[in-house]
Design goal:
This protein is 36% helix and 20% strand. The chain is of the alpha/beta class and 161 residues long. The chain has one domain: 3-Layer(aba) Sandwich (Rossmann fold). Strands 1, 2, 3, 4, 5 and 6 form a six-stranded mixed sheet that branches.
Length: 161
């Protein structure tokens, strides 16, 4: 089963439940901007709540807590040691050992802080970047990954009529 099919299967379990999509990244640093771009593309196209936290997800913890989602889907460009554009769901317990984020606060610390405040199912989606240099644009691989994620999320969480 390919990554997209695996992701679709895992996220399909969340259908019809209150879900919040959180994008982490900087549009100024190449592929690190893939999650903010995804958040932009999801506006008005999904019933899930969407928050682009930029590079400071910790500043949004109280906003997330107030929304009381049942599920939290976090998307970030991270070094998975894979081919650029690879999409992978990573269990929160794996974050310490295998993922290097482009942000100061590790995704694991962010998830731990949230977990102390609300009871929420957390799904972390990492996308392998090709380039994250300052001033670089999004790579073709990252752009394709954004489109795949947008299609999967809008299929599982279509907009309300």
């Amino acid at each position: 089963m390919g990554a997209a099919e695996s992701l679709l299967g895992r996220l399909n379990e969340l259908r019809n439940s209150k879900t919040l999509i959180v994008g982490i990244g900087s549009t100024l640093r190449g592929d690190d901007g893939l999650a903010p771009l995804l958040c932009e593309k999801l506006k008005g196209k999904t019933c899930a709540d969407v928050i682009d936290t930029g590079t400071v997800p910790e500043n949004y913890i109280q906003q997330i807590v107030k929304r009381r989602p049942r599920n939290l889907v976090i998307v970030d460009a991270v070094d998975l040691g894979a081919e650029p554009g690879t999409i992978k769901i990573v269990e929160p317990v794996q974050l310490d050992s295998m993922i290097i984020s482009t942000h100061t606060l590790s995704p694991k610390v962010f998830i731990d802080l949230l977990g102390r405040q609300i009871d929420v199912n957390i799904f972390f989606i990492g996308v392998q970047p090709a380039q994250c240099g300052l001033g670089q644009s999004l790579s073709t691989e990252a752009t394709c990954a954004v489109e795949q994620l947008k299609d999967i999320i809008t299929e599982i969480f279509p907009p309300q009529p």
